[in-house]
């Protein structure tokens, strides 16, 4: 499932499409401590977080995640959003909690029932 497919199916807002139509989500990494994300997130994971700043975009690039999903209504400011677009990072906005968003995605990926 691509990030854009997940967003459409579950009502997430696409803030930056990036490569969201061409990359598949292979797994999920939930964390708000960006130094941990850098060392532990795997390529093509969806990064689920509430950390909505330019460092999150940079870590998304470094970790080569398929998308960054900001939860709890958190949004990037205009400069951060432009950086995400420039770097072709797919950024989605969810009103739900990290847990609820991750659970929906885990079910879609067949990681749980």
Annotation field: number of helices: 5
Structural class: alpha/beta
Distance between the termini: 16 Å
Helix-residue proportion: 25-40%
Main CATH class: Alpha Beta
The residue ranges in which pLDDT falls below 50 over 5 or more consecutive positions are none
Domain DRTGG: 13-105
InterPro entries: DRTGG (IPR010766), Ser_kin/Pase_Hpr-like_N_sf (IPR028979)
Protein name: DRTGG domain-containing protein
Summarize the structure.
Residues 13-105 form the DRTGG domain. InterPro entries: DRTGG, Ser_kin/Pase_Hpr-like_N_sf. With 113 residues, the chain is of the alpha/beta class.
What does this structure look like?
InterPro entries: DRTGG (IPR010766), Ser_kin/Pase_Hpr-like_N_sf (IPR028979). It comes from Fumia xinanensis. The chain is an alpha/beta fold. The protein has one domain (3-108): Udp-n-acetylmuramoylalanyl-d-glutamate--2,6- Diaminopimelate Ligase, Chain: A, domain 1. Helices cover 40% and strands 18% of the residues. It has 5 helices and 5 strands. It has helices at 3-10, 34-40, 54-63, 78-86, 98-108, and strands at 13-16, 27-30, 45-49, 67-70, 91-93. A 5-stranded mixed β-sheet has the order 1-5-4-3-2, sandwiched between helices. Helix 2 (34-40) links the parallel strand 2 and strand 3 (45-49). Helix 2 (34-40) runs parallel beside helix 3 (54-63). The longest helix has 11 residues, at 98-108. The two termini are 16 Å apart. The model has no long low-confidence stretch (mean pLDDT 97).
């Amino acid at each position: 499932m691509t990030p854009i497919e997940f967003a459409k199916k579950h009502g997430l807002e696409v803030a930056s499409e990036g490569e969201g139509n061409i990359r598949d989500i292979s797994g999920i990494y939930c964390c708000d401590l960006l130094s941990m994300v850098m060392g532990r997130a795997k390529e093509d994971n969806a990064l689920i977080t509430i950390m909505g700043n330019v460092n999150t975009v940079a870590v998304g690039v470094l970790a080569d995640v398929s998308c960054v999903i900001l939860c709890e209504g958190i949004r990037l400011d205009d400069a951060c959003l432009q950086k995400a677009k420039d770097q072709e990072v797919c950024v989605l906005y969810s009103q739900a909690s990290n847990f609820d968003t991750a659970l929906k995605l885990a079910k879609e990926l067949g990681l749980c029932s």
